[in-house]
Specification:
Elements (H helix, E strand, L loop, with lengths): L4 H4 L6 E2 L5 H15 L5 E5 L5 E6 H8 L18 H10 L3 H4 L13 H11 L3 E6 L2 E7 H12 L2
Parallel strand pairs: 1-2
Antiparallel strand pairs: 2-3, 4-5
């Protein structure tokens, strides 16, 4: 049996808009995780017409919060860390999702074979791929869903 992105995609997903403040996005990540019963690490960003505008992940948010020159600071015990985290939170609160999202998104069609989905995820280092047909978002394939699909087939 040939399995496709449609067979393993999740059709229930959460989205943000480019104008959502990152502070609100973080709250929405938490809410989505509570609703899903699993941690949510990234979300699709849609524009006013419902079209895919980008993706934002926890990595994007953490990368923005990370002090720019941390790699030259030396050992952490050499640094006065008081207030650094709070300053990062303050800096991030005023940023919009559209400012830090990834705008160039790789997508797959619903009929894309799961081995092609796997190949794209590995080559492009992505953990989630929107499933799009004629510019309409149908769902999303998470790498964990792909892995567990393979795992289930191993144990059949």
């Amino acid at each position: 049996m040939q399995r496709t992105a449609r067979d393993i995609m999740t059709s229930k997903f959460h989205t943000l808009t480019p104008t959502t403040p990152v502070a609100e996005a973080v709250k929405l990540f938490k809410t989505a995780a509570e609703l899903e019963g699993r941690k949510v690490f990234g979300m699709m960003v849609i524009d006013d017409s419902g079209q895919l505008a980008g993706m934002i992940s926890m990595y994007d948010i953490l990368l923005f919060m990370r002090p720019k020159h941390i790699h030259i600071w030396g050992r952490m015990e050499d640094i006065d860390m008081a207030g650094i985290i709070e300053k990062a939170f303050d800096k991030t609160r005023s940023i919009l999702v559209g400012d830090i999202m990834t705008p160039d998104i790789i997508t797959v069609a619903p009929q894309t074979h799961i081995l092609m989905v796997l190949d794209l995820m590995i080559k492009k280092h992505v953990r989630r791929l929107p499933v799009v047909e004629e510019e309409k978002i149908l769902g999303i394939v998470y790498i964990s869903d792909l892995f567990y699909n393979f795992l289930d087939r191993f144990t059949e």
